[in-house]
Amino acid sequence: MRTVIKIGGSLLRSAQHFLDAAKFISTFDKPVVVVSAVKGVTDMLIELYKTRHESIYEAIREIHVEIAKRLGVSGIDPLLRELYKALDMPEGPDVLDYFMSFGERLSATIMHGLLRRIGLESKLFVAPIITDDNFGSAKPLEDKSLAEEIGENEGVSVVTGFIGRTRDGRFTTVGRGGSDYTATFLAKLLGYRRVILVTDAPGVLTANPQEVPEAKILPMMSVEEAVEAARLGAKNFHPRTFEPVTNGMYVEVRNYWSRGTVIGNFYAPPPYKVVLRCGEGSCVVGLDAEEIVKLGGEYVSRFAAHVPMPPKWAHDLFVKPYFEKLVWIN
Ligand code: ASP
Ligand code: MG
Question: Which stretches are transmembrane (predicted)?
Fold first, then answer.
């Protein structure tokens, strides 16, 4: 099955991390691999844009040179020179996106080089998605020519996450955390059924574990629940991450070893899946959110209700009892 695999930035912090990712990628048949920036680099690029401090440029340079050197990969020097030149550019939302584009361009270049080095056929696609010119939160446009080009590639297709391009060729970004969205958007455009969002968490949790230590990994979620949870701010998902997931597609949120959370067009238990901090109180996301509204909760949407209590209480009340009743095979 043709698969889109997205590798998160938290899994791209060192040469060893890139090797782990490459090993995982090598077990798939001609996958599309969407790559995030190395952890922390997008923030550094924003700082660099604001301050133009050469010390930040040097730190970004060092991170990537070190990883590339250890992996024996070349190809990032032209990008680093281009970034250095950008230090003289004026301010503007388009220039900020241009600065941010280097994070994904650098990491994808390294990933592509590494895959080739270990003997895989790989082709690099830099910002292949055409977007509108709403810099900072650009909207991807459905351009089929791209799908054809990637679809015809006879090897791994490495694609930069998060960034796109306007029709006249300027870099855009789709909003922070947007690589997941790039991955689901591409899968839909290409007609691929499976998307794997590889992250450092084992799956989607029922609550923020810092607030609710007994939060559990959800085995399954419907697309509607995932759309709602992302929209309300779950796990730093880009709010539109699950919007492209249509019938017949499914998304796995997982690490390399876990089974993770499978998100698709199915309606599995438990009835209440995720609790989030929400204004003064909590939002409970789940298929049966309307039942909570009947009990006095406030309507947020078809799949979410607001309750005036901290997440820990809401989790104890709505998620825990049903989760404990689920029967697990093995
Ligand atoms: N690198 C981007 C960010 O930090 C996109 C992503 O990682 O998904 O927001
Ligand atoms: Mg992310």
Answer: none
Residue 248 has a CB neighbour count (10 Å cut-off) of: 9
In a domain, 52, yes or no: yes
Read out DSSP for 64-106? HHHHHHHHT----HHHHHHHHHHTTS---HHHHHHHHHHHHHH
pLDDT the model gives residue 181: 97
Number of helical H runs and strand E runs in the chain: 11, 14
Residues with CB under 5 A from ligand 2 (ion): 177
Tokens matching residue 285: 């996301």
Same domain? 136 vs 25: yes
C-alpha to C-alpha distance for 111 and 73, rounded to whole angstroms: 9
Low-confidence ranges of the chain (pLDDT < 50): 330
> Which pLDDT score is estimated for 328?
64
Among protein residues, the one with the nearest Cα to ligand 1's atom 5 is 177
Q: State the Cα–Cα distance between residues 180 and 244, nearest whole angstrom.
A: 11
- Omega of the bond prior to 321 within 30 degrees of 0, cis? no
User: What does the pLDDT read at residue 144?
Assistant: 81
Owning domain of residue 297? 274-325
Residue 164 in contact with ligand 1 by CB distance below 6 A: no
Under a CB-based contact definition with an 8 Å cutoff, are residues 35 and 9 in contact?
no
